[in-house]
Specification:
alpha+beta; 3-stranded antiparallel beta sheet; two-stranded antiparallel sheet; 1 helix
Length: 107
């Protein structure tokens, strides 16, 4: 599906900061103290490693460090979008949102 409408729930910047700070703190503690630093009552059994679809932006890139300007590319996972201010944050970087694709294959 190609769409300029964001159809997933995006957390507020404050919620994202808290979530990613907890993740970074947990990983830092694990890196320095090892497996004994993990305290969790949650478990998963009969598990496999699987992939799932995550929201990304696809479009004509400009100013990207590895995608040539004018080429179509995909971003990493989108974690925050502010369409009114034309901004999106992915796992790796901020993007300024230009004109959305209108009349794409699924529109």
């Amino acid at each position: 599906m190609v769409s300029s409408e964001i159809d997933f729930e995006v957390s507020s910047p404050a919620e994202l900061v808290a979530t990613y700070r907890r993740l970074a703190d947990d990983l830092e503690r694990f890196a320095s103290l090892g497996p004994g630093s993990v305290h969790s009552e949650t478990s998963v059994s009969a598990w496999v490693l699987a992939k799932r679809t995550v929201p990304v932006l696809m479009g004509t890139m400009a100013g990207h460090p590895t995608i040539k300007t004018g080429n179509v590319g995909f971003t990493t996972e989108v974690v925050y979008v502010d369409q009114s201010n034309h901004l999106a944050r992915t796992i790796n970087r901020w993007y300024r949102l230009g004109r959305p694709l209108v009349g794409g294959a699924s529109q």
